[in-house]
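User: Look at the shape:
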Amino acid sequence: MQHTSTTSTTTTQKTRLPLAGETRSIKTDVDIEAELRAFEEAERERLGLKAERRQWVDNMLKPKMTKKERENVTLLISGLTAAQDFLCEGALKGLGYNVHYFGMSDNAGLQTGKEFGNRGQCNPTYFTVGGLVKYLIDLRDKQGMSTEDIIKNYVFLTAGACGPCRFGMYVTEYRKALRDAGFDGFRVMLFQQTGGLSQATGDDVGLEMNPAFFIAIIKAIVCGDTLNALGYRIRPYEVEPGATNRAMESAKRILYKALYEQTNVFKALYEARKEFEGVRVDKLRPKAKTSIIGEFWAMTTEGDGNYALQKFLESEGGENDIQLTTAWLLYNIWECARDTRERRDLRGADEGNYGLASLDEFGVAKRLATMRLAEGALRVGFQAFALPLGLFDYHLPDMELVAEVAKDYYSNDLRGGEGHMEVGKLIVNAVKSKAHLTVSVKPFGCMPSSGVSDGVQSLITARYPGTIFCAVETSGDGATNFYSRIQMYMFKARILAEQELTRAYEEAGVTEAEVRAFLARNPKYASPLHHAPHRVAGSAANLVYEVAPLIKQTAAERAVGKARAAAGALRDAVKAAPAKAKAAKEFLTDPETLARAREDVALIRDIVGGKAAERFSPLVKRLAGKAYFENNPEVRHVSHGANSVEPIAAE
């Protein structure tokens, strides 16, 4: 019996090694190396690894779409706010493209991203990659479409940036996840930010990056910005829950139709305005004004990617002050201008990829003039969209001010994430009473934003006492901790808003009943579109300060007060006239002013001479790329074709 047991043990050693503590007799002359090799061979056989494996090669480095494919290929888009993606779909469809916005990534997309993506990515990557893969899986498994047809008839349109996240290596994440999910060869068209949105040139290009394309995209983005800003301004004060969301959906359909049919978008904005005018509001509710800043994707997405942060803040008694894509464009223009100024003295020797060596004697001057004109045009253009919609008294940030207040705490030359803007925005919020609470949201492990919000901002809050600042991270599965942390800070902010409103009543010498009676008699001030001039952070307190003089004084008294104020302003102007005249003379004779004037004249001469398209095409392409396609700052660019557009600034 003992001999049989020994023989059995010797036989099975070909497929497994003795376990620790196992009681059995083993020959002392066993070749351990041979046994290990035998065990490895057996396991390879069992796992199906005996066959020769071919190394996977990424053959999708330069995907493209031809004109023949244009009628059959659907461009998939996603990545900005729901309103902007929806309107971009309409704008591109109006140009003849088949476009489909497949929705904002949810937690199911997150799980798909984690299943097919590499470990250790940040959740914007998991959400965006996973959302795409999940949509394709649903096409295959739920709608019965073959994998070959999906690969042939769909293209995902996005772009990369040169952010530092994971050293910009996420471009392969899309391909890796798509390959592992069974969609090897699916086209993800990534465009190079510094080279504009360009693919292979020629007559067979299916995605034409012409002026009409960029104008349509920018219209959709700015329309979405104004809709979002107005919606977040009205929603906290609505009397009937859900009324603002219904108005938002109706307004989006009106604008979608105008963009698709390429009709007058300003008329459509005015029609959309009527939808919001029907929302009944109570503007005297004390709401904590909450400024949302942080990593671009985390602060702009509106779904599971940031635990529906905006909706949660409103449920906790907040009024959201969101960051618009248009403001990001202003930051891009500021970057171009600053970098060009910083490197202008190196023009002859600066031969780097983003250098100025290729510019002629007046090239730098013209570029700076272009930046000034572009900033002015963007600001005026935004107001041209905002006013017909009813978004009154909305001020885009002053990028020079933000940079100036931040430079002592965070270098203006560090561009990871939002660069110095996170620091500058918090300081401006504190000094100018722009918000009761500032929330910085970023993905778990986001190095640029974490370095600011968890490091530099602690110094800012110490330097500016009374500032309420909350830094939170999103990982996709930590909603409870996320919400509880925000609730602690929202409690403080709500108390601050209530105290501010009480102080406004006392300082203005009116009661809540008097103000409500006045609003009932003067519905203009109770309109959902009315926005009181800024004095303090809270909208309700600002309204009290605005209407109190109208309640306490007669029309004659108000007229006398205005006349006295005008007279006082005139006296002050007369007294200050000599000093101002001297300062004006110094400004006009300053060499830098004269140089800037010559730059502007040269730019205008080019425009009058018919060179406007040549001058502004690189800028428009760059801005449109950042605004619409830059939904993954971690993704590295892929250049399509040898003919790339010249960069417009030294970055």
Summary: Residues 555-589 form the longest helix (35 residues).
